[in-house]
Write the structure tokens for this entry.
Amino acid sequence: MTTTRLVTACGLLAGLTAALPGQDGPAAGAPLRPPSVRALAYSPDGAVLVATVGWSGEPGAAAAWDVTTRKQLWVGRGPAGHPAAAFAPDGKSVVVADGTPTAVRLDPRTGKGLGKVGPHPKVVRACAFHPGTGLLATGSDGTIRLWDLAAGTVAREFKGGHPAEVSALVFSPDGRWLISTGPDGTRGWDVAAGTELKDAVKQDRGTAVYGPTFVAPDRVLFGDNSATQHLLELPSGQELLRYKGWGGGIAYAPALGVAAFHWHSPEVRVMDLAFRPPTAEESARVEKLLREFDDDSYAVRVAASKAMRGLGSAAEPALRRAAADGPSAEVRMRAREARKQILEEPLRTLKGHTARVGPMAFSPDGKVLATGADDGTVRLWDPLTGAELAQLEVPTPTGR
């Protein structure tokens, strides 16, 4: 195992969930506790997993593991908390944050330094690689910068969205849109034009946005502080779906059509959220079950409700329409109940962490969910069965 000394910083990317807004870390003088995992990131090929550790105001660390063997590849430590990590699209480098105004690029397998990005006016709190160009977006002060890493220069700047700080960045899968978050709120951006999407995210006064996550190139899912989930379409900002959910920590696996949620808790809930149109066969099945919702036989109606729940989120659009415009009170009632179960009841709950879960990341193929927590561990799960696959001990920032 290689030990690397980190002396620079970076942040947050698509597929990586950092701490929720409002989670400020331990108070000064608090008793020693396990290191808090701040961020998780898989390499594009799923072969390497990187975790970062440490809150602002305390020492930080980063580590990498070979996903197949679970062997720790390297550890790096620094004087300040490491808020996040971001893999380059080609997988040849990873950017890690360590609480300073510059960003460090490392070899994912060895931890060897490959260069720095910056300096920035303030500590770098967020970064994400653009999927199309490989440009690195960073946020420290209120300006978002796109860096040409080969030239070591800023290729473009997005200004005026945030008055003082950018704490999270996530690109859409096609790189067309960018979502940024700061203490003042959440903004959407047209990357090619470099302009803000003024209507992308409408926030009421006192409403906080948590965990913006793209579930399709033009659709972003997020939670708010009333435990409500919102699905928005970009660039219009039209709300396509709203439902009571599980709070602010979100990770999504498009390959499987499942999402993971948590809310200041050691538990993670896995939900069926395919966000795709139903197939012709599924549509026919949904229509048949809706007719059976109105059958004269109570047993048939009950069986139809159970079968509808089994169809999962593919049935949601039809259930939403039936809940409003169904031909009878029975159909409308059963449609509302089935829709509520699909959107709000988890397929399974992952239990194992002994302290609050923070970052979550699905492997590129969606078959493994990594979760990090304040208990000093990263745990790997099978999201389809709920089985815990492995427990990885994260490094202590002090080396003890």
